[in-house]
Design brief:
This is DUF3221 domain-containing protein. Keywords: Signal. The protein is α+β, with helices and mostly antiparallel strands. The protein has one domain. It is 25% helix and 27% strand. The protein has 3 helices and 6 strands. Strands 1-2-6-5-4-3 form a 6-stranded antiparallel β-sheet, with no helix packed on it. Strand 1 and strand 2 form a beta hairpin.
Length: 113
Amino acid sequence: MKGILALLLVAIFLLPACSPGAGEGGLLDKRQVLNMNPDADYVELENGEVYTHGAEWVYEKSLTKGAKIAEVEKGMASDLPVGTILYESKEIPAILISEYDGKTKRYHLAMGE
C-alpha cells in the first residue's frame, strides 16, 4: 500500500513537468516556443519577445493598426517574408499585425503558464 502511495505522489509531481509549457511562466523565448511546437509560425523581435500565429481568439477581436514596430529581417520570422511590416495593435499591444502582399496576419505574444 505504501508503495502505491509513493508511486502516486511521484506521478503527481512528475506528470505536470512533462506537459509543454509547464513551468515556463512569463514570456517565452524562441527555443521554448519551438520546443512546444517545432512547426510554430513565429516572429522574434530584436528585444527577444516572441509572437506566435494561430490562435483563433486573436481574429475574433476588432483591432486596428497602431505604430510600426519592425520590418522583418532574415532569420527573424519562420513564415513571414523579409520586408514584412509589423504593427502593434492599438487595442491590445500584445498583438502584432503583419502586412505583406496585401495579406494580413496577427501574432500574439508567446507566454507560458
